[in-house]
Structure formats: structure tokens, C-alpha cells
Amino acid sequence: MTHDVLAGLDPEQRQVAEAVRGPVCVLAGAGTGKTRAITHRIAHAVTTGVVDAQSVLAVTFTTRAAGELKQRLRALGVGGVQARTFHAAALRQLTYFWPRVIGGDPPRVVESKLPLLVEASRVLRRNPDRGELRDVASEIEWAKVTQVMPDDYMAAAAKAGRTPPVAPEEVARLYDAYETLRRERHLVDFETILELTAAVMTEHREVATQIRQQYRYFVVDEYQDVNPLQKLLLDTWLGGRDDLCVVGDPNQTIYSFSGATPRYLTSFGVEHPSATVIKLVRDYRSTPQVVGLANNLLARARTPHRLELVAQRPDGPSPVFAECDDEPAEAELVARRVKELVAQGVPAREIAVLFRVNAQSEVYEQAFTQAGVPYLLRGAERFFERPEVRQAVVLLRGAARSANDDQPLAHTVHDILGGIGLTPEAPAGGTARERWESLKALADLAEDIAAEGGDLPRFVAELERRATEQHAPPIEGVTLASLHAAKGLEWDAVFLVGLTDGMMPIIYAESPEQIEEERRLLYVGVTRARAHLHLSWALARSPGGRKARRPSRFLDGLTGLAGSGGSGGFGGGASRTAGGAPRRAVQTRVATPILCRVCAKTLTAGAEQKLGRCATCPADFDENLLERLKIWRAKAAKDAKVPAYVVFTDVTLQAMAERVPTTEEDLLAIAGIGRVKLERYGEAVLSICRGEEVT
């Protein structure tokens, strides 16, 4: 049996399975088989008599993950292991011991804070806004998991750089009123369940003794997502013991905004000096092309704990980058490519379109409906089922019955939507931001129809048509999901869309820490793909709009050489406008590894990619040419009234002096030089490289 349990594991997975005594820390990259490793570890410990199955508590972050873990253990012949989420395990213990140590019936669990917050608002004589209160609920959850009391909220929020949906003192008052109502009504929320379980164990020694006798062997998955309250409960369960195995990936920390922190994972060896630390980096999920892009994306990250994945699958199609004129063109392109993949044999259920915020789904819902592609929306209501959209449609329908033909459509729609939350400037984030994005999408659509000469009745008719078409319930289809909702999932083909600065990273991510979390979020999206990976962005929101957007800064240096689509690509060609006129919709680039031209090693550092060689590899260059380029750059920067590095960096000039480009294609082959700089400076640079005088 022991041999069977360990059979088929790679060397690092086997090392995890054989480390049957804690403390153990497993740093497991995306697609490296972490669930396989920890289930075989538990099975090996049970079958060798190290621990009884009933003494194991495996803690996961989702019920689905707990179910999968138990199913795998049963397949290995091991039953009786308790695999639960933090909340499920704590609630079970609290419910069991409550009558004995507290007396009476256990408190009732509230699934949502919103009803109590509505009442708390009325107690405080506030006019409750449900969208606003949903964001307040998130603030209260953050406060509770970080052990911040109502009286301390304002100072703690300021120190943490929080941007609450209402004034901090208002959040503190609502938090206090919410807690008062909750206690009066004998209710517990998910955070209170953890607090009370830890408190009962601390205050009643017999409870702690019984629980610790029951559970002697702990495994915690997704340890990078543990928050301070969960860590408090885990430490209380352990009671000073160290038979603990934690598993996580610091590269996938994407919930810091809700109180999660990777420091418990990254400092595990400090907390437990005798810990065994094992890294899993063999990626069995994705092709080398996808893995290479993921590694290069994080090569620019400011993290000392980066795991560099090593692909184990055969080669696949290169990732493709697509630049589109506008959002509808981008959505049409994705829908067309999805149909091609399905025709090639990729099941629709194995394809996903991932975006940063839920409001981005509408244009894809529309494009897929028009293309006849079935889809499923994961983790959010369909666009026309969202409360704010339904409310807006009701108001617009009422206004259309008494519409004044003299009043401009866009002005009318903005007035109506302004009454339910559409403001000139977007809120900082959270539910209020998502609600605003939905309303803004309606306002933008009104402007498009107004530009075509439409009026309010026509606009409402268009909304109703779209809503009717998109309510058709798909049985199986392409997954539409936010990047956060995609965590833990995987597909054969993944489309990452809307990758522009302001959306990825999101506009309200300002601090270096927030920017790096956005980078990790994109990394999570990349690593969801097994074989086909497509990254796209639109230069304008709507057809004919000003092309003012720029690709996400995270893509700088990653797009490789210009191409025409290649295997697995989006494909070239133009889309057509609603009137049938052709419109250039997309330029594609195939991502290819950038190799050192001296030693052929794959280059990951941005400076090395620009030079086309390792920093330590020798290279000959024309010093006179480099000096002429620097003189020209100084003059160009002075004329444009910008710092010299804005024109070209020293590294880029060095690369030019080494490669001596003579054509536009030569210039574009230097990493970091795009079409904009080519158009602005290309002619002058090429003239200098040809030895011509430039005035």
C-alpha cells in the first residue's frame, strides 16, 4: 500500500509525501500538482501508522476544494479524514460545544451582512443605499479579520491606506451599530464564528483539550490567502504543537484587499526554524509557451519569493497578443476565434474569457449572442440581471413613454442614471465601482445610439432586445469570469481581455504593493491556460472613438516579435462595422522567447531583452555611433521638453549601437520599441545608424 501511495509522484512531490512530520512548508507553483502532493502525504502518513485518519484536519478555502481532497483520499483507500473550510470546521465545533459551555441554543448564522446594515443605517437616520452598504460590509469584514474594533477603525483604515465607500467615521458608526444589532439578535457572521471558536477554546480548557485530542495533524491549503483571524484560530487549534503542513504560492496572492497576507507563508521558516521547506515548480498544466510567458511576467515583479515554473508538457501554440481598434472589435475578434477553436475540436466548456471587472462582460455577452456562441457567466449576475441595470432599464422605460423629442438622448440618459449613482468620476473601487461601471456602460451605449441619430424609445428598445436575447439560458458554453473568480480553475484556452492601463492594473491601484498585486492577478489569469493563450486590448472604447488607451504596462517587453498570427493565433483580417464597411480591427503579435544572441540563453530581465544578450556576455559595438545617438537624444529631449530617458533609455541606445538597425523591422526587434516610438523617432535613428547627418 505504501508503494502504491508513493507511485507516480515526481521527486519533489514524493519529498512532500514522505515528510510526514511537521512543520512542513510546500511552496507550490501553479499547475505543479500541490493537491496530489498533499493528499498522498496524508495517505502515506495514515497507511504507515504515523497518524489516524480521524486525527487529520485538512483546511481548504472552498467547499469544492475540500470535496476534491476527500475524493482523492478515498481513491487512495483512506477515509475518515476531515477536510473542511475554516468556517465549516469552526462552526461545527462551536455548535457542538455551545450548549455545554455557554448554554442555550447556538447563535444563528447570517449569510449576508446587508439586511443588518440596512437596519443599522435606519437606526443612524441614514438613507440606506444598498450598493454603498455592500462596500461597507466589505470594510467591516476587513476590520474583523484584521481584529480591528469599531472604535479603532478610522486609525487602522488610515494606516492601511484603505479608501472606504463613505467617510471613515461613518463606517465606524455603521460597524458599531451592526455589531450591536447582531449581538442583540443572537446572530453570528462568518468572522464571528472564527472569533468565538478561538475564544471558547481559550476560555474553556476542557474544550481546547477535547479538540486538540481529536485533531493532531493539520494541513492548510492556499496558505498565502490566510488572514490574521484565521491564523489566530489555527494557532489556537495547534496549541503550541507543530504537526502542521502548509501549502501555498506567494505568486498567487490576490486577496490582500480583504485582509489576506502572504507573510505567514513566506515567513514560515522564521516562525518554525526546524521546518522542512519544499518547492514544487514542475508545471504539468501548461505548455512551455504559456509557462515562459508566466515566468517572464513575474520576472519584473518586486518579490523575493518568486517561483520560476518549469514546463513538463510538449510544445504548444505561441501566446498571441491582439491590439484592437475598439472594444466591440475586440469582442467580435474573441467570439470569432472561439468559434474557430470549437470547430477545431476544443470543447466550449474548455474555453474562458477573463476580465478585470464584471462590467466588462456585457460586450462579450453581446458578441457571443450575435455569433451564436453559448456562454456561462461565472461569479456575477448576467449584465442585464444586475440590480443597478434592472433599475436603470425600468427608469428609462418610464421616461421613454413621455420622452421629449427636443431633449438629446445622451443628456436624458445621463440625467436619469445620475439619479441612481452615475457620477462624472468613477468611485475608487469595490461594489460602488462595479455598479458605476455598469451604469457607465449604459450611458456609453446611449451615446453610441445618439451618434447614429437614435432617440430614447429606440435606446430602450435596443436595451430590451439585448436583454431578451441574453436571457436565453445556455446549457454548456464558454466561461465568462473575472480574474478573481477564475482562481483555482483551468481551461484549454484562455482569453485575457481589456488589458489596458487603468484596467490592468486597475486605476485605483496606486501604491507599489497594489500594483504588484495587480501583476499577480494577471499572472493568475495567464496560468489558467493549458495550451491556447490570447491577450488583447482595445485602443478606444467605441468605434470611431479617440484611440488614447495604451496596453497594460505589465505587457512591456513580453509581446515578442511582430507576426501574422501563427499557429493558435487570433488570425488576421479586418472586422466590419454595423453598416458593413470594413474596419481594421486588430494587429497580432506572437510571443516568442527572446534569446541571448551570444549564448542562446532565454532572457527574462528587461534590460537584457533590450540588449539582446546577457549582461555578462561580451559584445562589440561602435562607440562613435553610441555617442552620436546620445547627442541626438539630448537634442530630441530638449525639443520635446522631456527627460532624455523618455526618448530612449541608455540600455536602448546601447542595443542600437550593438545591433546597428537599418530597417524599421530591425528597430521593432529591439524589445521595448513599439510603433509609437518608431513613428516618432525611427527615421532619425535609422539615418544616424546609416552614418547620415541628422539636423
Commentary on this structure:
The chain is α/β, with parallel strands linked by helices and 695 residues long. It is 47% helix and 12% strand. The protein contains 28 helices and 20 strands. It has an 8-stranded mixed sheet with strand order 13-14-12-15-16-11-20-17, sandwiched between helices. A 6-stranded parallel sheet has the order 3-2-6-7-1-8, sandwiched between helices. A two-stranded parallel ribbon has the order 4-5. Helix 4 links the parallel strand 2 and strand 3. Helix 3 packs across helix 4, helix 6 packs across helix 9 and helix 18 runs antiparallel to helix 21. It is globular. The N and C termini lie far apart (80 Å). About 4% of the residues have low confidence.
Quick rundown:
The chain has 695 residues and is of the alpha/beta class.
